[in-house]
Amino acid sequence: MDKLLIAGNGPLQGEVAVAGAKNAALPILCAGLLSDQPLQLSNVPRLWDVATACKLLGQMGVNVERPAFDQVIVEAAGLTTGTAPYELVRTMRASILVLGPLVARHGEAHVSLPGGCAIGARPVNLHLAGLESMGAQITLEGGFINARAARLRGAHIVFDTVTVTGTENLMMAATLADGQTVLENAAREPEVVDLAKCLRAMGARIVGEGTPTIRIEGVARLAAAHHRVLPDRIETATLLVAAAITRGCVRVTRTDPTLIDAVLVKLRQAGARISTGDDHVELDMRGRRPQAVSLHTLPYPGFPTDMQAQLMALDCIAEGVGTIRETIFENRFMHAVELQRLGAEIQVEGDTAVVTGQRRLTGAPLMASDLRASASLVLAALAAEGETLIDRIYHMDRGYENLEGKLAALGARIKRVAKPL
Ligand code: UD1
User: Fold this and answer.
1) Atom 34, ligand 1: which residue's CA is nearest?
2) Can you give the pLDDT at residue 419?
3) How many CA atoms lie within 13 A of 85 on its CB side?
């Protein structure tokens, strides 16, 4: 199993380009199921979750091609089965995103229940309740969700909790339903907006994405389209924290700074000088130690839970005390115990972590527990003295495109080792 060996060696410097957003690419690939005509995508990131999504579609009889590094063509004319097997769903929870499109176009779906996850229970009850109110018949058997509908019908759905993939699943299903669907308390994440843009390019009738109320008027069929996936805001922000934690100066390009306002506020509070342009953002720490920041996670446009672990790493070496509250997932502090192995001082109580910044961290062997936790360990290791060896780095490979290569290009001493040293 691959590990990462990192030797902390001072400020990162230079320029780095981000890939397309994983969390937009995954639902958009599944949107390909809604049409029998090709969906041509560009700026698709090269990472394991995308490979898993392509495999999942492929085993349903969908033709998936990768004509160039960042391009994918999905063509679902030959869709043969609506089954998403446990072997694939358990490696990627976002596989649930095939459910809505399959019921809407294929009339039936047989999708393994995702089960628990390191960061929380993560149920899919809201996805299922929404499909039921659109007329789908749903049963659970043998660990599978079986859903069936001759044709879905429009419905008025109010989400109990803001759910990103729940909003996406029902928005996709509603594009082919009979009549109008209204989604209230919908997720406003930029990836939901990007999916709506792609669906509209395919001929869907959607208004209100990016607000809590999305209206979808169902159509009989969707057509061929091209779509460019929006930049990855979490990768962008992770690279900026890498610059901040090492007291460096980094320009992140091919991105959209307006997607990370909540993170930029915190990085400015930490003492970073930040300048932005249409497609880039530059962070300069001017060699200074960061100030501790406090935050609580919220649905967009609040501070993203997917950046909580990385900001905790920053607080570990900052001046002062930072209080971090996680309100989205109930168990998303697994990285805290690993950061403590580097010498960090963190008190976790319930949904709150209090981090007292230390002047120095020292390298140690660590274990990654989930995708964003793996990024926080990498960041802390960049700021630690000596060597850190991070195990279970496959979590990072699921969701970051070549993070170690990008950090190495900025001057980090980081390398992949294929077996234990
Ligand atoms: C998505 C993102 C993930 C991000 C998360 C929150 C993708 C592929 N993943 O995950 O990176 O961390 O949003 O921004 O886009 N919930 C229910 N019932 C449901 C659905 C959700 O109770 O049916 C709860 C969850 O347990 C959680 C909260 O709602 O506490 C938000 O989860 P949700 O937005 O659904 O997360 P994902 O869409 O799985």
Assistant:
1) 163
2) 65
3) 10
First-last CA distance in the chain:
12
Q: Dihedral of the CA atoms 377, 420, 362, 334 (nearest 10)?
A: 30
Stated length of the chain: 421
The radius of gyration computed from the CA coordinates of the chain, to the nearest angstrom, equals: 21
pLDDT, average across residues 117-139? 90
- Please tell me the residue having the least CA distance from ligand 1 atom 33: 163
pLDDT reading at 404 higher than 60: yes
| Alpha carbons 215 and 194: distance in angstroms, whole number | 15
125 CB near ligand 1 (under 6 Å): yes
Q: Do 44 and 50 form a contact (C-beta atoms < 8 A)?
A: yes
Note the pLDDT tens digit of each residue in 276-308.
999 999 999 999 999 999 999 999 999 999 999
Residue 362, judged by CB atoms within 10 A of its CB (0-12, 13-18, 19+), counts as middle
Token pair belonging to 248:
């460096």
Which residue of the set 117, 198, 249, 316 is catalytic? 117
Residue nearest to atom 21 of ligand 1 (CA): 163
- Distance (angstroms) between ligand 1 centre and the Cα of 164 equals 6
Rounded to whole angstroms, the Cα distance separating 67 from 72 reads 7
Instruction: State how far the Cα of 193 lies from the Cα of 24, in Å rounded to an integer.
Output: 9
Chain center to CA of 88? 18
Across 163-179, average pLDDT: 98
- The share of the chain scoring above pLDDT 70, in percent, equals 98
Tell me, yes or no, if 117 is annotated catalytic.
yes
Max CA distance (Å), the chain: 63
Atom nearest to 126 CA in ligand 1: 23
Six-digit token string for 364 = 């140690």
pLDDT of residue 116: 63
Q: What average pLDDT is seen over the chain?
A: 96
* DSSP letter string, 13-61: EEEEE--B-HHHHHHHHHHGGGBSS-EEEES---SHHHHHHHHHHHTTT
Mean pLDDT score, 336-346: 98
CA distance linking residue 352 with residue 133, whole number of Å: 36
DSSP designation for 143 = T
**CA–CA separation, 332 vs 242, rounded Å?**
20
Backbone angles phi, psi at 214, to 5 degrees: -115, 130
Summarised one tens digit per residue, pLDDT across range 11-50 is 999 999 999 999 999 999 999 999 999 999 999 999 999 9
pLDDT of residue 309: 98
